[in-house]
Amino acid sequence: MNEGGNRLLLLLGYISEELVEEAREEEADPAGTNRIKAKKKSGRRRWKAWGTAAAAVACLCVVIAAVRLMGGISADSTGGMYESAQEEAVMDTAGGSAEGIEEEAQAIGEEFASSGESQDGDSAQTGTAQDGEAEDAASASKEDMAEADVAYSVWIDGMEYAPISFEQCKEYGFVSQEADGLTPENMYHITEDDLGEELGTVEQSKDTSMIGAQAYRYKGDSSGKVCIVEMPDGGWEIYVRADS
Amino acid sequence: MRDEEIIELYVKRQEQAVTETDRKYGSRLLGLAMRILNSREDSEECVSDTYLAAWNAIPPTIPVYFFAYLAKITRHAAFGRYDYHTAAKRDCRMMELREELQECVEDKALEGPEEHMQAQYVAELLEKFLKALPEEKRKVFLRRYWYFDSIDTISTRYGMSQSKVKSMLFRIRRELKEYLEKEEVHV
User: Fold this and answer.
1) How far is residue A48 CA from its own chain's centroid?
2) At what angle do helices A30-74 and A17-28 cross, to 10 degrees?
3) Interface with A, mutate which of B61, B160, B168, B180 (most A CBs under 10 A)
């Protein structure tokens, strides 16, 4: 029983000392371990930096949308967007970051100036136009959100699969029906025992790193709607067919 | 003491060589043997055998990687002492590792010189396969199947989650299976 596996274990004993030494280095040289960890940490830091930048951009968008909305409301009586943004900036700049916020407000004003918009705020028309813009911004933001929802969907064998939602986790028995929220104890840890037959590879995804990833059917699902995809950075994720 | 200095003691036939080897690497070699045999007594004997083998081989052999050289001797000695029936009762780790690697191969019994040639050939293929792997994957694979580390130990060592280590090993085993099939190897 397991003769082949046993022979492989034995035959591995004949590989060169160079390879054995390489794996040993970590043991004798903690710096080696730290190097790998440091590499990982720097990767994480990069992601964190990108995350912070993305959050900052998102905040700026919200500020712009809010300023546009407020500018639209007050445009009939006051100096419009630019002044309104500047006033807000001045109001908020009692602290040390005053210059930064003023600059931000100015940038918002300049953005409007460059888009050929009236900054005099001399008529209700401007207000109406700005209301329209606010709606556009809101709808654009909704579109963005919709896009974010499908950003990590994957297409396998022509079918769309979306990352499993918490409700679906309950539905397919990955967490108990009483589970309330995705706490660590409510997270299902996939093991290779969960992998069923191969489903195929990811053909298409907005996350291009996913393309080519191997997908398997989930053993515990008879409907064939649940699959497990090998993530490019290791580990597995559960996906559910989008039409289910 | 540096490895070169210990080897120098072997070359000069000074018995202190064994003492220094034991001081520097004794616990690691014992740990390696223990992970295979799960018996302190047997493992200590393996380590003693290792020192004797090193004493007899150096010189003329001058190992480039001293620890790896000793560890290989210990590993072989431990496998030589491995009693499948009693060891299986004592510890299921070896069974687990054998089962894992069983996925990569089909059993096909070979006998006589053909078996010996096949073994050499497979060992060379394994070497090639491992060298082609990215460094991190190679280390994880070797820590598991050469040094017999547990998943938990590997995940701590490399700062990965246990599921990542498992999936990485799973992928490597699958790649190894494909590689051996492509080379038409049946172990």
Assistant:
1) 11
2) 70
3) B160
Sign of CA dihedral A208, A211, A215, A221: positive
B160 chain-A contacts, CB cut-off 8 A: 234
Q: What is the pTM of this model?
A: 0.51
- Give B126's contacts in chain A (Cβ within 8 Å): 8, 11-12, 14-15
CA separation, residue A8 to residues A4, A179, B10, B138 (Å)? 6, 44, 33, 16
Q: Does A216 touch chain B (CB under 8 A)?
A: no
Q: Which residue among A2, A12, A13 places its CB closest to the CB of B99?
A: A2
Mutate to test the interface with B, among A19, A39, A238 (most CBs of B within 10 A): A19
State the pLDDT at residue A96. Answer: 40
- Whether B67 and A28 lie within 8 Å, measured CB to CB: yes
| Cβ contacts of B119 on chain A, cutoff 8 Å | 7, 11, 14
Most confident segment among A36-50, A188-202, B48-62: B48-62
Domains identified in chain B and CATH numbers:
3-88 (1.10.1740.10), 92-182 (1.10.10.10)
Mean pLDDT of chain A: 65
A42 at B interface, C-beta within 8 A = no
Q: pLDDT digits over B114-125, tens only?
A: 566 677 788 888
Among A150, A181, A209, where does a domain finish? A150
Same domain, A142 and A48: yes
- The pLDDT-based confidence of A3 (bands split at 50, 70, 90) is low
Question: What residues make up the domain containing A39?
Answer: 1-150
Angle, alpha carbons A104-A105-A108 (nearest 5°) = 90
Q: Please report residues of A whose CB lies closer than 8 A to that of B143.
A: 23, 26
Residue A202's DSSP bridge partners are A156
The torsion angles phi and psi of B55, rounded to 5 degrees, stand at -60, -40
Residue of B nearest to A34 (CA): B158
C-alpha–C-alpha distance, residues A191 and B162, integer Å: 10
Domain boundary among A111, A129, A150: A150
From residue A90, give the alpha-carbon distance in Å to each of A33, A78, A85, A103: 51, 16, 9, 11
- Whether A189 and A236 share a structural domain: yes
Q: How far does B93 lie from chain A, in Å, by closest CA?
A: 12
- Residue A25's pLDDT is what? 57
pLDDT digits (tens, 9 = 90+) for A86-122: 444 344 434 444 444 445 445 544 544 444 444 444 4
Residue of B nearest to A190 (CA): B163
